[in-house]
Amino acid sequence: MSSGPTAQVHLANVVANWRALGALNPGSETGAVVKAGGYGHGAAQVAQALSAAGCQTFFTAHAGEGVEVRRAVGNAPVIYVLNGPDAADLNVYSEAGLRAIINTPEQLDIWRNANIDAPLALKFDTGMNRLGLRPETAGELATAGSGLDVAHIMSHLACADEPGHTKNAIQLKAFSELVRHFPGIPASLANSAGCYLGGDYAFDLTRPGIALYGGGHAPDGFELKPGLTLTAPVLSVHTGRTAETVGYGATKILARDAILATVALGYADGLPRSASNSGFGVLGGVRCPIVGRISMDLTTLDVTGASEWAKPGARIEFIGAAANLEEQADCAGTLGYELITGLGSRVERLYE
Ligand SMILES: *Cc1c(COP(=O)(O)O)cnc(C)c1O
């Protein structure tokens, strides 16, 4: 076992989450988003495990990430690059057999000028104003004269994580009108939260990311398993006395004597400094508050309630089955997405 922070990656859980998401929308293919290093879990390892489980379509943000995934999964699966092609990386698309997603008129020109004879996806903006072609250009792009081999039509939901938000129905309507221009061509709209919105949103292919890794807010009764367990070893256990302070800035004043444990995990490892005096670790099944400021390499917790387990070398959990990812992220004023994609390179990833 490492003497520093570790993230034990539960590939079997990622596969189980992927299967559970697939069962929600059995009429649709379930893809997998493995951008940002598989949300911090290791893109190659995650893609390989999902590919072995039958996943046939992967999504990365960058072409370089796509190359890494291609090496991991072999030639058969489809790998889409969400951010779309750039003139500088066109050769990578052909060499690694990556599929372009065209998001802008400029990307369309780049792709056409390159004369690459390969299928692609067209992504339209149905209300997010982020990345995507204008829906009014769909008619022209759908004609045979466009010379495009369109394999998928896509769009992205802005408010899927708020099931009651009116924007969902508006985007669904806009997307449904759009896909009518492309009869017989499979369509894809739903990210993880979109998978929970019901069959109307699933279309032919879903694109879950965060849910594969156990994050996001699943509906009641739908259990996701943690994609990883983040732990850090205790370096020191000592007693802090009433009225003493803890950490930089002396932001924590002890109201009573407390047993304090300092662990080898800090903001350089991705534990956000904003979780100072609000986040937690779990030791021996007991939730122990982070006290004082999180520093670069060290964090101190009040382990008074878990004193029987508190000794140097013991490992405290910060994300996992006992320390819920979204709850920890909430303490830091952020989302599970930011927490897991921000885990630092010093956190050793261990694979089962
Ligand atoms: C990142 C991304 C996804 C995955 O989103 P999650 O919320 O993590 O499920 C799906 N589609 C697009 C276009 C994305 O950029």
> Cα distance, first to last residue?
13 Å
The fraction of residues assigned to DSSP E strands is 15-25%
Look at the structure and give the mean pLDDT: 97
Tally of strands:
19
Task: Indicate the low-confidence ranges by residue numbers.
Answer: none
Count the DSSP helices: 11
What binds here, in terms of ligands, is:
pyridoxal-5'-phosphate
Please state the CA-atom Rg, rounded to the nearest Å.
23 Å
The level of helicity is 25-40%
Q: State the secondary-structure class.
A: alpha/beta
Major pleated sheet: 7 strands, parallel
Strand and helix order: EHEEHHEHEHEHEHEHEHEEEEEEEEEHHE
Strands of the widest sheet, in order across it, are 3-4-5-6-7-8-9
Shape from CA axes?
elongated
Overview of the molecule:
- By secondary structure, the chain is α/β, with parallel strands linked by helices.
- It contains 11 helices and 19 strands.
- The strands form 5 sheets. It has a 7-stranded parallel sheet with strand order 3-4-5-6-7-8-9.
- α1 packs across α3 and α3 crosses α4.
- It starts with 5 loop residues before the first strand and ends with a strand.
- The model has no long low-confidence stretch (mean pLDDT about 95).
- Bound molecules: pyridoxal-5'-phosphate.
- Pyridoxal-5'-phosphate binds near residues 156, 193, 207, 208 and 210.
